[in-house]
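Project outcomes to date are best conveyed with an example. Our students and postdoctoral researchers have been running inverse folding experiments weekly, and each run begins with a structure described purely in tokens. The record below, which covers 146 residues, was selected by the lab manager from last quarter's runs and is presented without edits.
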């Protein structure tokens, strides 16, 4: 796979989630990810994009910028918004993936981040002029796909 990113800017509305999942599916199949890995990525990406749709812009219109980029055998999926978002009281715990506390003690709003951590190999959340979520999935088998 080449390392040139594929970048989309799309209105932050629920109707566009299927477009994002379709692009992810096409790229992941071509790269050689298994069906289970692709489904995991689709759930994680849908959750990250749903967070943008629900929380980033309030009642205003906004956009999701999503990029797919290869770095060695890792697929980096970056979901970015420019919205104000919502700041949770336990935000630092949520960003760590809730690994330090039992799941039953997690706040409802933090479960999406927990799922992303469970389904992806690595998750990074950055908050500066909006929110950026980077989801990283390592390709399990390395074969040349024709």
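After processing, the design step wrote out the following sequence:
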């Amino acid at each position: 796979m080449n390392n040139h990113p594929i970048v989309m800017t799309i209105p932050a509305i629920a109707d566009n989630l299927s477009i994002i999942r379709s692009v992810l599916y096409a790229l992941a199949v071509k790269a050689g990810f298994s069906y289970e890995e692709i489904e995991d990525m689709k759930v994680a990406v849908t959750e990250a994009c749903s967070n943008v749709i629900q929380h980033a812009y309030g009642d205003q219109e906004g956009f999701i910028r999503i990029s797919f980029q290869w770095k060695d055998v890792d697929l980096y999926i970056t979901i970015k918004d420019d919205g104000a978002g919502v700041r949770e009281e336990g935000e630092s715990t949520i960003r760590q993936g809730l690994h330090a506390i039992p799941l039953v003690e997690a706040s409802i709003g933090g479960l999406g981040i927990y799922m992303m951590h469970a389904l992806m190999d690595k998750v990074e959340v950055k908050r500066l002029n909006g929110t950026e979520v980077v989801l990283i999935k390592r390709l399990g088998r390395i074969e040349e796909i024709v």
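The beta strands are 6-11, 63-71, 74-81, 122-127, 131-138. The chain has one domain: 6-138. The training component of this project remains on track.
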